[in-house]
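Sample 3 of the quickstart, ligand uracil:
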Amino acid sequence: MKAIELKHPLVEHKLAILRDKKTGTKEFREIISELATILCYEAMKDAKMQKAEIETPIQKMTTRKIDEDNYAFVPILRAGTGMLDGIISVVPNAKIGHIGMYRDEETFKPTVYFFKVPKDIDKREVLILDPMLATGGSGLDAIDLLKQKGVKKIKFLCIIAAPEGIKAIEEKHPDVQIYTASIDEKLNEKAYIVPGLGDAGDRIFGTK
Ligand code: PRP
Ligand code: URA
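Result:
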C-alpha cells in the first residue's frame, strides 16, 4: 500500500510552525495534537459504522455511528503520546495500548522497554501513533509485536516520514497503510529526518 500524505494548505501551514526551531513547547504540543486529529480523520475514512436511531429537535431519524470498540490506538513512547490528545478528542472511548521504545543514538536500533495493550487487541483494528518515521526500525518492531498478538489490521500514523522508513515498512509489511502529514527528503548521517523538525520527544517534553 502506498503511503498516504495529507496535502492541504492548513496542514502545510501548521507544519511550517511545527518545524521552526523557534516554536516553543506549548505550541509544538498543540500542533502535534491538531495534526494527529486530522490524520485520524483520514485514517478512519473506512471506519466500520453501526445503524443508530436518534431524534433531532425536528424528527426521528436513522443514521450511523462508528463502532468505537473496533479500534485501539497504540502510541510509541515517548513521542507518540503527544498525539493522544488529538485522537481522544475525536474518538473519546478509544482503547489505548503503549509500546515503550528508544532508539540507540549510535546504531539507531530500537530497544523495547514496555509493552501493554488491551486484552482483546487481536479483535481490533490498531492505529499506531508516532510523530516520526525515520529509519523505520521502531515502526517495524511495533508492527511485529502487534502481529505476534494476533492483530490483523494495522495503520501507522505519523507527522513526518522519511522515504527510507516508508520503504522499510512497505517492504516488510505491505498490508500496513501509512498516513503522514509530510514525506520529507531523506535521513542525515545521524538518522534524523531532513528537513524534519528535530527530536520530536525532546520538543514535546522539553527535555533538551
Ligand atoms: C523517535 C521517534 C520514533 C523513532 C523513529 O523516538 O519518536 O519512535 O525515534 O526513528 P526510527 O524510525 O529510526 O526508529 P526516540 O527513540 O527518539 O524516543 P523518544 O520518543 O523517547 O524521544
Ligand atoms: N526521531 C526524531 O524524533 N526525529 C527524527 O528526525 C528522527 C527520529
